[in-house]
Design a protein that fits this description.
Structural class: alpha+beta
CATH class of the largest domain: Alpha Beta
Keywords: S-adenosyl-L-methionine
CATH superfamily of the largest domain: S-adenosyl-l-methionine hydroxide adenosyltransferase, N-terminal
Strand content: 25-35%
CATH architecture of the largest domain: 3-Layer(aba) Sandwich
Number of helices: 5
Shape: elongated
Largest sheet: 7 strands, mixed, barrel
Order of helices and strands: EHEHEEEHEHEEEEEEEHE
CATH topology of the largest domain: Rossmann fold
Distance between the termini: 50 Å
Number of domains: 2
Organism: Geotoga petraea
Pfam family, one: SAM_HAT_C
InterPro entries: SAM_HAT_C, SAM_HAT_N, SAM_OH_AdoTrfase, SAM_OH_AdoTrfase_C_sf, SAM_OH_AdoTrfase_N_sf
Helix content: 10-25%
Low-confidence stretches: none
Family: Belongs to the SAM hydrolase / SAM-dependent halogenase family.
Length: about 260
């Protein structure tokens, strides 16, 4: 199985072109789209999206990851085999696999530089010519030792962990979904004392907003800011039938915020 994620959008032929190449190499390949529409160029956000999406896939899934703003440069194309669970990630070596490494560990790294497995050679469509082609060959059970030379490490982003205690949290906005819900890096570890009957504030960039803790969206009234733990068990900032991203005017992700209990 190949799980496919890019930042290309779906208003061009790029996604279908890569799928066609995969099918040309392996007509039996199963391809699942993760997303192609969650913003552009944002390696930081996509590193978190990729980790969360990967958790639902079976072992030995091949993740074809093309968030590649420096395509054509000296950045490497790599294959990473993780420890536990065993997954295969084919991606640019630009930090996009930082969270995957932290969560799953790495068993093997291969630079994808054997041109015998390239589809074509171009400067700006490595998603088709390199990443897609190698994913297809790997899905045919060709041993990845033939794909290129082994590397010792990958490039990683400088991602800071959230801070918790009983009365406040310092975290980061990661990305927004199609409803405008704001996803964060705050995982439910039972350190912070969440209580539906208490009052909270969220502050960032010198601004402060009242906030309620609820278990689901409609438990809070319209146009009121709420927080809850989503299906991935991470804290989400939302507005019932509204967009928290628009309400808070979030333009840049990796923005630090603080949540405090006030009573």
């Amino acid at each position: 199985m190949i799980a496919f994620i890019t930042d290309w959008g779906e208003d061009s032929y790029y996604v279908s072109s890569v799928k066609s190449v995969i099918k040309n190499i392996n007509k039996n390949a199963e391809i699942i789209d993760i997303t192609h529409n969650m913003g552009k160029y944002d390696i930081y956000s996509y590193s978190h999206i990729l980790l969360r999406a990967s958790k639902e896939f079976q072992e030995n899934t091949i993740f074809l990851v093309v968030i590649d703003p420096t395509v054509g440069s000296s950045r490497k194309a790599i294959l990473v085999e993780t420890n536990q669970p065993k997954y295969y990630f084919i991606a640019p070596d630009n930090g996009i696999l930082t969270q995957v490494k932290r969560k799953y560990g790495i068993n093997k790294i291969i630079e994808l530089n054997n041109k015998n497995y390239f589809w074509k050679e171009s400067n700006t469509f490595h998603g088709r010519d390199i990443f897609g082609a190698f994913a297809a060959y790997l899905s045919k059970n060709i041993n990845f030792k033939y794909f290129g030379n082994e590397l010792l490490k990958i490039n990683e982003l400088n991602i800071k962990n959230p801070f918790y205690n009983k009365n406040n949290i310092i975290g980061h906005f990661l990305y927004k979904d199609s409803f405008g819900n704001l996803e964060t890096d705050v995982e439910n570890n039972n350190t912070f004392n969440f209580d539906k009957h208490s009052s909270y504030v969220i502050s960032f960039e010198g601004k402060e907003y009242p906030l309620n803790y609820k278990e689901y969206y409609s438990e809070c009234g319209d146009d009121k800011l709420l927080m809850h733990f989503d299906s991935s068990n991470y804290l989400e900032i939302s507005i019932y039938k509204g967009s928290a991203a628009s309400y808070l005017n979030i333009k840049n992700f990796n923005t630090k915020f603080e949540i405090k209990k006030i009573k």
